[in-house]
Amino acid sequence: MMKRIRLWLRELSLSQQLLTILFLVVSTLTVFIFAFLTPEINDITMREMYRVLHSTHSDFAWYLSHTDPSISIPENPNDDSGIFHMVYLPQEDSFLIPDTASEITPLIQADIRSHLSEVGEGISDYSCTIGKHGAAVLYCASKLADERTVISMMSAGAESQFRSLLVNNVVNLNMLVAIVLFVILTVWITTIIYPLNQIKTYISKIKNDEPAELSVNRYDEIGDVAYALVDMERELQKQSREKQEMIQNISHDLKTPIATIRSYSESIKDGIYPYGTLEKSIDVIIEHADRLEKKVRSLIALNKMDYLLDDCQEGDTLNMNEVIDKVLLSLKVIRPEITFERDMDKNVLFHGDEDPWRIVVENLVDNALRYARTTIRIELHPGELLISNDGPIISEERLAKLFKPYEKGTDGQFGLGLSIVHKIVTTYGYRISPENLSDGVCFRIWKELDRKEIRAFQKEKKKEEREKAKEIRRQERQEKKAHTEA
């Protein structure tokens, strides 16, 4: 049942939701008035009527107690209030009733007579029902010092009139609240529907590749969505332009080695050696084939990283020391003049597979080799890898866009390596950030260690320090022994 209601609500427009809310509010108010408020109104009406009746009764009783009993009862002393007074004379067993008090019928007198024995020194309250519709007549009674009983009565019309006035005021108040709520909700829904329609039109135009503008002057969540859509559209246009440029650039880069390989191959086939000898001409063909292979591998790797999933065994199981050693063994021959400095803890484990992490290290080291002047430094600690070089620093603008796949490098070429690095690192739950140093640039890969991993690292560190100190003492003893024997 609840599922059907939720599905039904999802299909409603905002205007329909507004009408539904108003219907529920009005229905709730109606149920509240008739089921809960009406009994309370009846109770309030009775208390107020008896309060007014007591006040008038007390004044009339004081008047009678200070007046000669032979004097007749005043005619309608409280005509506007609908209250009538009468006196019961016990010696004569009769009532003194004003001539104008036509409301006091024999039926009411009989009801009063039945309660006279219950009246004490204080004021006692009673009511009786008369008429076809069961209208209530309220009255109170008290005894004077001379045993006379004073009775004050309120007509049924006064009590009904007060109740009707109170109910009307409550109903009118609720109607006013409902109308105000309707106006507020209507204005509110309108202010929501209009910008949403603007956003809908804007998205439709973008979808159809039409010129589109969006101007929503709001600072709430709807405004945030509108501004985000505008920024997204600008970013998509920018990426589309850059992607198109990248495709043109890659096409040119692929075309050059292919043309060279083709022309050199045809020349060799015709017995002509462009570089003078067969070996040198073949070396040129191999060099361009390597360039072509590298670019194709980068494109394949970038596409493959889009589908990379972290389906490895839980925990850190990959020995990063071995991965780094393999990479340096194959890349350091590119620039033999570059010095590699290492600060690597032993047996540092990372989470992930070897091949993706090897691509990460290869791309970062290759990038460092491209810009380093004399030195590349590699630091490896539990949960952290740093690769830095003493090359030129990177501008702040480029730092923010370094890992985007279609950003141009400082040489005007589109690099894909750092984009591949970012995808692999984030897939395995690590973070990467570039940082300008005082004498170069550093790429830092890290993840937050839990307390257990920190304690294990500290324990391993202390063990290494003890072993190192033990080795130093052993060497000192050997040197001392050799010196003594000499």
Question: Explain this structure to me?
Answer:
The chain folds into three domains: 15-166, Beta-Lactamase; 231-305, Signal transduction histidine kinase, dimerisation/phosphotransfer (DHp) domain (Helix Hairpins); 318-448, Histidine kinase-like ATPase, C-terminal domain (Heat Shock Protein 90, 2-Layer Sandwich). It contains eleven helices and twelve strands. The longest helix has 52 residues, at 14-65. β1 and β2 form a beta hairpin. It has helices at residues 2-10, 14-65, 106-115, 156-207, 221-269, 278-305, 320-331, 354-371, 396-400, 417-427, 451-485, and strands spanning 83-89, 94-96, 124-130, 135-143, 149-154, 318-319, 339-344, 349-350, 375-381, 384-389, 431-437, 440-446. Helix content is 58%, strand content 14%. The model is unreliable at 76-80 (pLDDT under 50). α2 runs antiparallel to α4 (156-207) and α8 runs antiparallel to α10. By secondary structure, the chain is an alpha+beta fold. A five-stranded antiparallel beta sheet has the order 2-1-5-4-3, sandwiched between helices.
Strand order in the largest sheet: 2-1-5-4-3
The CATH architecture category of the largest domain equals 2-Layer Sandwich
Radius of gyration: 49 Å
Model regions low in confidence, pLDDT < 50 over at least 5 residues: 76-80
Q: Helicity level, as a percent range?
A: 55-70%
User: Which fold name fills CATH's third level, the topology of the largest domain?
Assistant: Beta-Lactamase
Order of helices and strands: HHEEHEEEHHHEHEEHEEHHEEH
What's the pLDDT, averaged over the residues?
A: 79
The rough form would be described as elongated
